[in-house]
Amino acid sequence: MSEFLIRKIKKQDNPQIESIIRSVFFELNIPLQGTAFEDPETSKMYEAYSGPRSIYYVLEHQGEILGGAGIKPLKSFDDSVCELQKMYSLPKIRGRGFGQKLLNRCLESAQKFRFERCYIETIESLQNAVILYKRNGFLPIGGPMGNTGHHNCGLWMLKKLQ
Questions:
Q1: What is the pLDDT of residues 76-98, one digit of tens each?
Q2: What is the architecture of the domain spanning 4-160?
Q3: For the segment 114-132, what is each residue's pLDDT rounded down to a tens digit?
């Protein structure tokens, strides 16, 4: 059996990762408006993460993209804070530790990029994701930071890096 690979996104991965992200919204009945579903970056993930201090990782197995997660500077905020973004995966790999591996890779990159804190916003109904974030030192905060445009995400969390 071939290995699972976590690697940087390539331009040709855009359609697969977009399909995964959008499918999760329908699968888990997540609001479409004010979330990553309507974010214009979702259809151009490679381009969206090609800027400075930005990276998006995909999980690949036998040529199939199964999930992904990324880090980039938090929009409209000071440059010491990054945002963990668009962490989604297909149901067939959930609960197997791949979310933790993707998160680890993102946090390692955040530290290499010399961010001091990592922000995430999510939806409370995504209980497994919330448990993962809390287990990794993300703490709830009282409101949103920056200007992500994701007004339907009602849970905001922050982790101190280093």
A1: 999 999 999 999 999 999 999 99
A2: 3-Layer(aba) Sandwich (3.40)
A3: 999 999 999 888 889 999 9
Q: Of how many residues is the chain composed?
A: 162
Token pair of 145 as six digits: 């930071």
Mean pLDDT of 65-71: 97
Sequential DSSP letters for the chain = -PPEEEEE--GGGHHHHHHHHHHHHHHTT--STTSGGG-GGGG-HHHHT-STT-EEEEEEETTEEEEEEEEEEPTTS-TTEEEEEEEEE-GGGTTTTHHHHHHHHHHHHHHHTT-SEEEEEE-TT-HHHHHHHHHTT-EEESS--S--S-TT--EEEEEE--
Closest by CA to 69, choosing from 7, 141, 123, 138, is 7
